[in-house]
Every structure is written in structure tokens, then in C-alpha cells.
Write a structure and sequence with these properties.
single chain; alpha/beta; 8-stranded mixed β-sheet; 49% helix; globular
Length: 335
């Protein structure tokens, strides 16, 4: 795909996304945005990746407001310390902290999990939020294409390494939850099992869309495994919509111009964008219910191909090989 074609494809995606939400956002602007009311989450623990800014920061802040012990995972110590300070001040919740985690490094993810488990605390909510968007072609520490490696594979490994703690922390009627943040961009994504690293023909837009599509496949297969093993853990996808964040710094200049001129009415604020993640993490309406795709706090259908069980299994198996995780699919479904 040529740079021009990629840019036009990106513009189409965001134009469609903006058209879908503009009426809702205008109504919110006119009447004022009212924060939904959720039950307090005292004595519960959450990890939020990418919680230093944007949607992740707002998600961490709102979970802290509900009384949760929130651990922010990120790779920028300075930004994280400032985020923790601000959240503590605004929420009056001292149980907010930072642990270093670079999703571009499997070694860093493993160290993050080790440090977390040394705390000997439960884990009730894991929000897989961090990500990169339309970056130039480059690879992670482990040699994976950056969108695939950070957005998808890093969270795949992190989730699997924390599953034992999530299972121990969940209980019937009070499940632990995995919330994975995808995007409407997944609707134009294509899962290329023969080229997951986008090495044959690189397009930043296509690579980003594939990573967000992979997260949906991952969530649905994870939920199937959890159900098959009777685990008190659920896995759902949260779609924040079109949100005004710094992720757009790498997109086509025309998209950035539209964002600058019309962002106030076409884009959600980070607080508004975070609500679907927060809803998915704490609402009683989703107790014991997984394998859902949530947009604007409502269940909707993801791309049709994401429900293909064989593709789910194939991506999971390849991801296990890439990360060194044991694939328990056959064992789980045989039991």
C-alpha cells in the first residue's frame, strides 16, 4: 500500500468513526457530560497499562475514585510519578502506585509481573489499555513489528502471566475481569497469519488495524478458555470511540488538522473515552459475562471474522509460540 493510499484509508476510518459518534457527542456537549454512577470497589485491585496519560490515565483515575487500589503500568517514570500524584490529589485515594512495564520487551513484562506478585496482593481487574498508533516501521526489543508487539503481543503475554492471580482473586458472583481496549479501526483490519509482522508490505495504518483486530480474537478465545476451565474470570473488549489523545501525533497531517479544528465536537475527551473501560471493569450488569464487545457502555458486534473459532485458535497458538507460553487449548476443551 502506498503512503497516499494508507493516508486515505486512515482518513476514511476516522471519518466513519466521527460520523457515528458526532451526534452523540454534540448532545453531550449541549447538555453537559454527566459521569455514570458505579458501585464502590473497595478492597479491589486493578492494573491499568498505559495509565500515565490519555484514556489510560482517565481509567486509572476513575477506578481510584471508586476506591480501588490502582497500579499503573508504563514505561515513563517521570510521567508516571506525576500521574500518580495527580490521581492521589484528585481522588484522595493513597492506594495508587506505579510499576515499570515496557510492553515492547518481554523481559520487562516478566519483571513487572514478578514485582507485582511480590506484593502478595490480589488482582481483580486488568485493563489492557496501552498502545502505539501508526508509528513508522520499527521493531520491539524482541524483534516484533511494534504495533503487533506492543498493542497485542505484550498484552497477550502480560495477561497470561497474571491469569493465575486473577483466578485466585475471583469468586463466584464476584469475578475478576480482563478488559482489553480495542478500536473501531479493527473493522477495517485484516489478520494476516502468514505475515503478522507486516514485513512483506508495511503500512502503519494496516499494522495498527491488525493489532486492534488481534486483540478482539485474543479476548474471545481467552473467554472460551476461562469458561472451559470454570475460572471465575471474564474477558471483554472495550471500544472507547474516537478520543482526543496524543496517539494521533503519528497520523496523516490532514487527520491532525481535522482533529485540531473540530476535535471539540468530533472527538470524545479522555474522560468520556474511558467510560466504556470503567463500565466494563466494574458494572454489575457484566458480572459473569464475558466474550462481549462494548461500545458506549453497550454490547455490539465486532467484525464478523472475529467470531471464527479456528482463526481464534490459530492466532492463540502462534502467540503462545512467540511468547513462550504453553498453549492449553486442547487440554482445556478436552476437560
Amino acid at each position: 500500500m502506498s503512503p497516499l493510499s494508507a493516508a486515505l484509508a486512515a482518513l476514511r476510518v476516522y471519518a466513519v468513526g466521527a460520523a457515528v459518534v458526532v451526534a452523540q457527542l454534540l448532545r453531550r456537549r449541549l447538555r453537559g457530560f454527566a459521569e455514570p454512577v458505579f458501585p464502590l470497589q473497595l478492597e479491589r485491585v486493578a492494573i491499568v497499562t498505559g495509565g500515565t496519560d490519555g484514556i489510560g490515565y482517565s481509567t486509572a483515575k476513575h477506578l481510584a475514585k471508586l476506591g480501588m487500589h490502582v497500579i499503573i503500568g508504563g514505561n515513563n517514570q517521570g510521567k508516571a510519578e506525576e500521574a500518580v500524584r495527580k490521581i492521589k490529589e484528585e481522588t484522595l485515594n493513597d492506594k495508587v502506585e506505579f510499576l515499570y512495564c515496557d510492553l515492547a520487551s518481554m523481559r520487562s513484562i516478566q519483571q513487572f509481573v514478578q514485582r507485582f506478585k511480590m506484593k502478595k496482593i490480589p488482582l481483580h481487574v486488568l485493563v489492557n489499555n496501552a498502545g502505539v498508533m501508526m508509528v513508522p516501521q520499527r521493531t520491539t526489543e524482541d524483534g516484533f513489528e511494534e504495533h503487533f508487539g506492543v498493542n497485542y503481543l505484550g498484552h497477550f503475554l502480560l495477561t497470561n502471566l497474571l491469569l493465575d492471580t486473577l483466578r485466585e482473586s475471583g469468586a463466584p458472583g464476584r469475578s475478576a475481569r480482563v478488559v482489553t481496549v480495542s478500536s473501531a479501526t479493527h473493522y477495517v483490519g485484516e489478520l494476516k497469519l502468514d505475515d503478522l509482522q507486516s514485513s512483506k508490505s508495511y503500512s502503519a495504518h494496516a499494522a495498527y488495524a491488525q493489532s486492534k483486530l488481534a486483540l478482539v480474537f485474543f479476548t474471545y478465545h481467552l473467554q472460551a478458555l476461562l469458561e472451559a476451565t470454570g475460572s471465575p474470570v471474564t474477558a471483554n473488549v472495550a471500544d472507547p470511540g474516537v478520543v482526543d489523545t496524543d496517539l494521533y501525533r503519528h497520523v496523516f497531517w490532514g487527520t491532525r488538522l481535522i482533529k485540531k479544528l473540530f476535535g471539540w465536537c468530533l472527538f470524545k475527551t479522555p474522560d468520556e473515552g474511558a467510560w466504556t473501560s470503567v463500565y466494563t471493569a466494574v458494572t454489575p450488569a457484566l458480572e459473569g459475562r464475558g466474550g462481549r464487545y462494548l461500545y458506549n457502555e453497550k454490547e455490539t458486534k465486532s467484525l464478523a471474522v472475529t467470531y471464527d473459532l479456528e482463526l481464534q485458535r490459530q492466532l492463540w497458538a502462534r502467540s503462545c509460540r512467540m511468547t513462550g507460553i504453553a498453549d492449553v487449548t486442547q487440554e482445556a476443551f478436552r476437560g
